[in-house]
Amino acid sequence: MNGVVAGITYRAVLGRRRILLLILLPLGLVGLAVLLRLVGSADERSAVTLMQSFAIGTMLPLLGLIAGTGVIAPEIDDGTVLHLLSKPISRPVIAQTKFAVAASLLALFAALPTFVAAWLLVGGESGIATGFTVGALCGGIAYAALFLLLGVVTRHAVTIGIIYALVWEGLIGNFVPGARQFSVQQWARSIADQLSSSPFLATDVKLSFAVPALIVVTVGGVLWAGQRLRAYSLTGDE
Amino acid sequence: MKIELSQVSRWYGNVVAVNDVSMTIGPGVTGLLGPNGAGKSTLLHMMAGFLAASGGTVTLDGTPTWKNHQIYRHIGLVPEREGVYGFLTGWQFVLSAAKLHGLPSPEDAATKALAMVEMEPARDRRVETYSKGMKQRVKVAAALVHDPQVLLLDEPFNGMDPRQRMHLMDLIKAMGTAGKTILFSSHILEEVERVAQHIEVVVAGRHAASGDFREIRRLMTDRPHLFRIRSSDDRKLAAALIVDRSAGGVTLTSNGLEVQATEFRRFAWLLPRVARHEGVHLHQVSPADEDLESVFAYLITRSS
Question: What CATH class does B3-220 carry?
Answer without folding.
Answer: alpha beta
